[in-house]
């Protein structure tokens, strides 16, 4: 809330009172019938997704999320925004988003913590699609009503997500209850497991009330069963606004120095899936520069630069390190134009080519 200056105490009180959020009360109600619950789950599952985290071509992580917003992009397409945990996406270069409609969308890690002090475990993935996906409402984001969700210990809750394996896509948890509450966490007894991270927790009337984040297993040295923590929806809304408010124009590339890219022991990090990965299949030997290891699908470089392009010059400046590239980029602003000189492997001709490519910041 912005600080308000007024000329009288009465006016100040009126202004402050008008900013106070209203509460959505969730008193304990009867458990829904089986048919009601099935219909509710089917509806909510259409906006709940499975997230596969990738580092370059290697699948690394499994998590869940929910589609909460969209906006037009171009030519009948939309940008969709997926809420999840930051620990599901951190260190990943992109995400595959599996939807309940059977689609696989390519997602960018769009908004995430930017400092050690900004450590709330919330991130936002963005993808572009022509499909019209339904959204799950996050009620406190409605700035017109300025609403908070009020919860109660003992209230019935359930989650939807993809625990343990992608084969368990969009499983619904058991009906649990809220066992404890504070302004940050909703502790509950709906059974969540690894892979549920980032997925939604709902009150049994279908209101989104939190992001499932962790299963509590040990307290004071004792094993605990069926206790999980979800980040409270009111906190989630606050973090979403902060995350999106800090998004700035970007080229949309992830880079590594050439020497690091060619010397990394990929099989040690990624196991058998990297057994046949040879970095020299993608960049020439005895070279220099920085390697693009990912191009964000919804950012300015998409469709121009490609994964494994070796950048050797930017706007005529020689690039030998990440720092060189950052310095050559300078202050990113919409409308800036950057000319990349890259080496790219032509798979059709089986040769390395020198290309000059122009990226305009949008």
TrEMBL record:
SUPFAM superfamilies in alphabetical order: PDZ domain-like, Trypsin-like serine proteases
Give the highest taxon in the source lineage.
Bacteria
Q: Where is the signal peptide?
A: 1-24
The enzyme's E.C. designation: 3.4.21.-
Molecular function (GO) terms for this protein are: serine-type endopeptidase activity
Q: A Pfam family in this protein?
A: Trypsin_2
Q: Which UniProt keywords apply?
A: Hydrolase, Protease, Signal
Location of the PDZ domain: 285-349
Q: Under which main EC class is this enzyme filed?
A: hydrolase
What the entry lists under InterPro entries is as follows:
Chloro_Bact_Ser_Proteases (IPR051201), PDZ (IPR001478), PDZ_sf (IPR036034), Peptidase_S1_PA (IPR009003), Peptidase_S1C (IPR001940)
Example GO BP:
proteolysis
Indicate what this protein is called per its UniProt record: Trypsin-like serine protease, degQ family
């Amino acid at each position: 809330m912005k600080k308000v200056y007024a000329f009288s105490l009465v006016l100040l009180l009126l202004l402050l009172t008008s900013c106070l959020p209203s509460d959505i009360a969730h008193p304990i109600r009867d458990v829904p019938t089986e048919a009601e619950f099935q219909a509710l789950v089917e509806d909510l599952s259409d906006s709940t997704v499975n997230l596969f985290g990738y580092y370059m071509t290697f699948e690394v992580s499994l998590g869940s999320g929910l589609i909460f917003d969209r906006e037009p992009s171009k030519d009948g397409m939309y940008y969709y925004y997926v809420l999840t945990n930051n620990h599901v996406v951190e260190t990943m270069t992109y995400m595959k988003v599996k939807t309940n409609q059977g689609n696989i969308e390519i997602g960018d890690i769009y908004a995430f913590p930017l400092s050690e002090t900004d450590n709330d475990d919330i991130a936002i993935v963005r993808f572009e699609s022509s499909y019209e996906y339904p959204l799950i409402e996050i009620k406190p984001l409605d700035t017109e009503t300025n609403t908070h969700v009020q919860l109660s210990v003992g209230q019935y809750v359930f989650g939807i997500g993809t625990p343990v394996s992608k084969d368990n896509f969009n499983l619904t948890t058991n009906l649990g209850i809220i066992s404890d509450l504070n302004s940050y966490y909703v502790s509950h007894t709906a059974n969540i497991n690894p892979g549920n991270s980032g997925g939604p927790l709902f009150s049994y009337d279908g209101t989104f009330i939190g992001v499932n984040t962790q299963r509590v297993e040990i307290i004071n040295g004792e094993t605990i069963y069926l206790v999980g923590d979800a980040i409270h929806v009111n906190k989630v809304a606050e973090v979403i606004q902060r995350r999106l408010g800090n998004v700035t124009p970007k080229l949309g590339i992830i880079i590594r120095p050439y020497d690091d890219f060619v010397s990394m022991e990929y099989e040690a990090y990624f196991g058998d899936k990297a057994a046949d990965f040879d970095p020299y299949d993608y960049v020439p030997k005895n070279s220099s520069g920085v390697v693009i290891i990912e191009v964000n699908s919804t950012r300015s470089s998409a469709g121009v630069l490609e994964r494994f392009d070796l950048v050797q010059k930017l706007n005529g400046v020689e690039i030998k390190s990440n720092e060189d590239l950052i310095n050559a980029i300078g202050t990113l602003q919409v409308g800036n134009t950057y000319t990349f000189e890259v080496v790219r492997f032509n798979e059709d001709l089986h040769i390395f080519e020198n290309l000059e490519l122009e990226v305009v910041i949008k």
